[in-house]
TrEMBL record:
Family to which this protein belongs: Belongs to the class IV-like SAM-binding methyltransferase superfamily.
Record field: catalytic activity: uridine in 28S rRNA + S-adenosyl-L-methionine = N(3)-methyluridine in 28S rRNA + S-adenosyl-L-homocysteine + H(+)
Ranges where the record places region Disordered: 1-21
Key word Methyltransferase present: yes
Protein name per Swiss-Prot or TrEMBL: 28S rRNA (uridine-N(3))-methyltransferase
C-alpha cells in the first residue's frame, strides 16, 4: 500500500509545484507587461515635455502707421473694420510691434488707451481708437472679458475678423505656452497664484502675483485638480520656441517719437528703419542687411510728409529720405494714384518677406 500512496503524494506535490511555477510565470509576465506599459508612458510623457517647436526667433519686426487712416472711413462700422484689416495684415507677416503715431503731433503726452473715446466722427481721437481695437484683437478671446470692459471704441467689434494667432488657444489645445490672467483666489503658504489660461483646470504658477494681470505661462505638469505652470517673459514663445506670439501696441506722439522711442533694451534702437513712399528708391535694388529690430514706417492719406511737417522735433527742415536708413518704393508702376495704408502693408511685407525670413542676426 505504501507504494501507490507514495506515488500519489509525489504526483500531488508535483502538481502543486507546477501550479506554483505557473502562477509565478503569470506574475512575471504581468510585471513585464507593466514595465513595458510604464516605459511607453514615460516615452510619451517625454515627447509631450519636449518642445515640439521650431528654433527660436531673436529678431523683431515693427510697423508704424498714423491713426488718422481711420478718418478716411465713412462710418463707425467701417472704422472698426479698417482697424481689423490692419491687425490681420500685421499678424499674417508676424509683426511683433504696431506703433500708432499722431501725424499731427497734437496729442501731447496724455495719449493712452485708458478712459473713454471722445467720439467716432472726424473729431474723435483716431489714434487711441485704433490702438484700442488692435489691443482687443490681439488679446485671446477667453481673456477679453477680464481686460476689455464695455467701451464705445469696441461697440462694432462684431464686424472684426478673428486673428487666429498661435496664442489664441482653444480649451482642449495641448500647448507648451499659454496666455492667462491671474485670478483673485486664496493660496496656501509657499504656493504660487492661480491663473486662468482658458483650460478646463486652473493653472497654479510658481510665483505670487497681483490679481488681474496678464501673464505668459509655460505648462509644466498635469495634476488631478489643477495644472502646474511657470511664469515666463512674454517673448519666450518667440525666442525659445519659434512661435509667433502676437504683437504689442505702442502709441507715439509724433513721427520722430515712433522712430526714436524703441522699447527694446538690448539695443535701445531699431537697427534698420525703412520709410515707404512712391517717391522712394525702387525696392528691387534693396538688399536687407542683418538686423535685430526692424522698423517699417507707413504714411497716411497725405503720406509721411504730413507727419514730418507737423513734428516740432524735426522742424520740417530735414529731407524725408534722410529720416530713415532706407526710403523705398515697394510698389513701382502702380496702377492707382494712391495706395491705401492697409494695402501698402500687404504689398510691402510681401515684397520684403523673403529677406526678413532669411535674416540671421
Amino acid at each position: 500500500m505504501n507504494g501507490p500512496s507514495k506515488n500519489k503524494s509525489e504526483e500531488k506535490l508535483k502538481r502543486k509545484v507546477e501550479k506554483k511555477l505557473h502562477k509565478e510565470k503569470r506574475k512575471i509576465r504581468k510585471l513585464e507587461k507593466q514595465m513595458i506599459l510604464k516605459k511607453d508612458f514615460e516615452k510619451k510623457k517625454e515627447k509631450l515635455e519636449e518642445p515640439v517647436l521650431g528654433d527660436g526667433r531673436s529678431y523683431t519686426v515693427s510697423v508704424a502707421l498714423p491713426g488718422s487712416i481711420l478718418d478716411n472711413a465713412q462710418s463707425p462700422e467701417l472704422r472698426t473694420y479698417l482697424a481689423g484689416q490692419i491687425a490681420r495684415a500685421c499678424v499674417v507677416f508676424q509683426v511683433d510691434e504696431i506703433i500708432v503715431f499722431d501725424e499731427s503731433a497734437s496729442s501731447g503726452k496724455d495719449s493712452s488707451t485708458q478712459g473713454d473715446f471722445t467720439g467716432v466722427g472726424k473729431k474723435g481721437n483716431c489714434n487711441i481708437q485704433l490702438a484700442r481695437i488692435l489691443q482687443y484683437l490681439e488679446c485671446p478671446q477667453y481673456l477679453r472679458k477680464s481686460f476689455f470692459p464695455k467701451h464705445k471704441d469696441l461697440q462694432y467689434a462684431g464686424v472684426l475678423n478673428p486673428l487666429d494667432c498661435p496664442h489664441h488657444m482653444r480649451e482642449q489645445d495641448n500647448a507648451e505656452f499659454r496666455e492667462g490672467v491671474v485670478v483673485d483666489r486664496p493660496i496656501k503658504p509657499g504656493k504660487g497664484s492661480f491663473v486662468d489660461c482658458g483650460t478646463l483646470k486652473t493653472v497654479q504658477i510658481d510665483k505670487v502675483l497681483q490679481p488681474n494681470i496678464r501673464v505668459t505661462v509655460k505648462i509644466k505638469e498635469q495634476k488631478k485638480k489643477y495644472i502646474l505652470g511657470e511664469v515666463v517673459p512674454p517673448h519666450y514663445p518667440r525666442t525659445k520656441g519659434g512661435l509667433y506670439w502676437g504683437y504689442n501696441v505702442r502709441l507715439a506722439n509724433s513721427l520722430s517719437s515712433a522712430i526714436v522711442d524703441c522699447p527694446y533694451s538690448d539695443t535701445g534702437k531699431y537697427d534698420i528703419t525703412i520709410g515707404t513712399s512712391d517717391k522712394g528708391e525702387p525696392v528691387a535694388d534693396f538688399k536687407m542687411p542683418t538686423f535685430k529690430h526692424l522698423l517699417i514706417v507707413f504714411g497716411g492719406l497725405q503720406g509721411l510728409e504730413a507727419g514730418l511737417e507737423a513734428d516740432e522735433a524735426l522742424g520740417g527742415d530735414i529731407e524725408l529720405s534722410l529720416l530713415f536708413d532706407k526710403y523705398l518704393n515697394t510698389c513701382p508702376n502702380q496702377g492707382s494714384r494712391t495706395i491705401r495704408t492697409e494695402e501698402a502693408i500687404l504689398v510691402t511685407m510681401s515684397t520684403l518677406w523673403s529677406q526678413i525670413l532669411s535674416n540671421q542676426p
